[in-house]
Amino acid sequence: MDHMANVGFSLNFEIIRKKMVHEQIISRGISDRRVIDAMLKIPRHIFVQEAFAAQAYNDKALPIGEKQTISQPYIVALMTEKLALTGTERVLEIGTGSGYQTAILATLADRVYSAERIRPLALNARKCLDYLKLFNVQLRINDGEGSMIGWEEEAPFDAIIVTAGAPEVPEILTDQLAPGGRLVIPVGAGPDQQLITIIKSQDGELHRESSVTCRFVPLIGKQGWQA
Ligand code: SAH
After folding, report:
1. In this predicted structure, what is the pLDDT of residue 191?
2. Where are the domains of the chain?
3. CATH (one of 3.40.1390.10, 3.40.50.720, 3.40.50.150, 3.20.20.70) for 60-214
4. Could you read off the pLDDT of 186-226 as tens digits, one per residue?
5. Do residues 74 and 4 touch, judged by C-beta distance below 8 A?
6. What is the C-alpha separation between 143 and 18, in angstroms, rounded?
7. Which of 74, 187, 219 for a ligand 1 pocket mutation test, highest count of atoms within 8 Å of Cβ?
8. Is the CB–ligand 1 distance for residue 142 below 6 Å?
9. In terms of C-beta distances under 8 Å and separation of at least 24 residues, what long-range contacts does 190-198 make, across chains too?
10. Inter-axis angle of helices 119-131 and 100-108, to 10 degrees?
């Protein structure tokens, strides 16, 4: 994995990034100013392999190796907006992958805990996050047998985002959500999922909303899919 091989082209990429934010994010209805600013700020091209750098701001997911993908920019923006972050939150992310979504979260929240089951992806993400001086991120590699889901020692979280598709909303995650917290997760039995937002009320009741159809790689684990 050739991390950060593309940093030298940053001026060019800044222009393409601005175009991406206007054409793919703002024009499709994302209105949270903080999310828009984070998408303008974080260089997406450093999170992809050199061969894909020229496509980093295209309207699609891209391969990142290990049969995994970096999500489409619009889906990153949409999921982040649904978390309604204000800057004070402790956020859990399941599926660090490239680390791009992690960087967006780190820009918008107080602290980010991100778990990944594929070691080389986590190590590459760490390098990218360090390069961007996003030091409020704690990464964890869950490559043990059974692929654990969640991060019990650091729970509860004000926001949880799952960037892999699950068969159902894992109870282990709703349990790790703080009162008033939000969980965003793609849920579905086939290759396509519905983007689900779970809001936990102050007295612990769960409210469920469904939005767009999306396509994520599978969430692996006991309350996910089998490897
Ligand atoms: N947000 C990432 C998405 C990467 S794809 C990005 O945009 O780059 C989803 C990731 O979830 C994959 O890297 C996969 O290895 C990881 N994953 C799947 N099941 C997991 C689990 N139980 N715990 C942690 N990571 C998991």
Report:
1. 87
2. 60-214
3. 3.40.50.150
4. 999 988 999 999 999 999 999 999 999 999 999 999 889 99
5. no
6. 36
7. 219
8. yes
9. 191/215, 193/165, 193/166, 195/75, 195/78, 195/79, 195/82, 196/169, 197/82, 198/169, 198/174
10. 50
Distance 138 CA to ligand 1 centre (A): 15
Going by alpha carbons, the residue nearest to atom 6 of ligand 1 is 70
CA distance 58 to 115: 26
Q: Where are the beta strands (DSSP E) in 46-205?
A: 62-65, 68-70, 90-94, 111-116, 137-141, 157-162, 177-187, 193-200
Distance (Å, whole) CA 151 – CA 136: 16
Q: Report d(CA 91, CA 183) in Å as an integer.
A: 10
Is 71 known to be catalytic? yes
Structure tokens at 72: 């489409």
For the stretch 109-134, pLDDT in tens is: 999 999 999 999 999 999 999 999 99
Q: Answer yes or no: are the C-beta atoms of 158 and 178 closer than 8 Å.
A: yes
Please report which helix (H) or strand (E) contains residue 214, including its range.
strand 206-214
- Per-residue pLDDT band for 176 (boundaries 50, 70, 90) equals very high
Mapped onto helix, strand or coil, the DSSP state of residue 1 is coil
